[in-house]
Amino acid sequence: MKLYCAGPIRGDRSYVQFVEEIVLLTLKMGHIPLRELTPQSEEELATDDKMIYRRDMDWLDQAQALIAEVSAPSLGVGYEIAYALHIREIPVLCLHHRSSGPLSAMISENVSELLTLETYEAKEELEEIMRRFLEKCASAI
Q: Domains of the chain, with CATH numbers?
């Protein structure tokens, strides 16, 4: 399954290690992550905006599901979630770290049957949460 893995690139990067873990777990579980590992340098962060938009929209259009780390606010991740839910109509898993502040009501109170919201604390929890979500996705295909 092709999975778009969403997380902030330029905004608050407090939970970036979990975004990278999501990408690695996607590979470990035999799926295709549609995301580059998070940029580490200022040079990588300076990638052309038009290229980023076209690439990411292309990935979203290929994805069969979206997994998003939503602990830190990100306009881009919010856009990607809305696009996945309302344009593509694909399943979305939002992962929220226990230590972060309250979520936007646009996520926490969303009643879409395509949206799954899970709270986690450690990397080890991510694998089980992702496994359950992906089994649910596979049974719906």
A: 2-140 (3.40.50.450)
